[in-house]
Amino acid sequence: MVLTQSARRSPLQVLMMALLMLLIGLGLAVPVSPQAHAAIRSFEEQPGQWLYQSRSTLQAAGGQQWQAIAYKRVTPLGALSIQLRLVGFPGAASILRDHPLLLKQPQGETLIAQDTSATLFSESDQPEPYVGQYDLLPIVADLRPELPLELELATQTGEILTLPIPAFVIQEWQDLLAA
Fold it and tell me: Which InterPro entries match (predicted)?
């Protein structure tokens, strides 16, 4: 068999074509999510009652990690609540109860989420000091998803714990309204 000049490939060309085919093959194998809010999970807690949630891991300035769970609950009668639960690791910080959560936006506006931690535990249970819950429903529509913000959480030592929130997390919280 005789190859013409145009049919011959240099080793570099063969390598480049093989690499290109590999990249195309890998690209086809990677699933692509058609929705931007794919991180929102939904659960039917009981017949007709749905829970939608977004989970994020946040890191405080001191290096402690916190789990932020924003969730919307819709009851069979249509009652709606949107809460933000913050969970640290034992010993990370003791949250000061009955103090609101401050949400500070870069342009200087501060929004306030009221503490609803008392609803987390029954009267016989003592609330864990590193778990807090806040009402997002009155303020979630006022958040600007194109900008990050900071949460300020009062602690029992008098220190303020600051948790930076990326813009994509804020967008997920707002997506809960539409879910």
Answer: DUF3122 (IPR021469)
Instruction: Round to whole Å and give the CA distance between 157 and 159.
Output: 6
| Contact call for residues 91 and 109 (beta carbons, < 8 A) | no
CA-based angle 49:52:56, to the nearest 5? Answer: 150
* pTM for the structure as a whole: 0.75
| Backbone φ, ψ for residue 169 (5° rounding) | -70, -40
CA distance 148 to 137: 19
Question: Are 171 and 111 in contact, with CB atoms under 8 Å apart?
Answer: no
Indicate the helix (H) or strand (E) that contains 111: strand 110-113
Interval 44-71: pLDDT, tens = 999 999 999 999 999 988 888 999 999 9
> How many angstroms separate the first and last alpha carbons of the chain?
65
Amino acid at 161: L
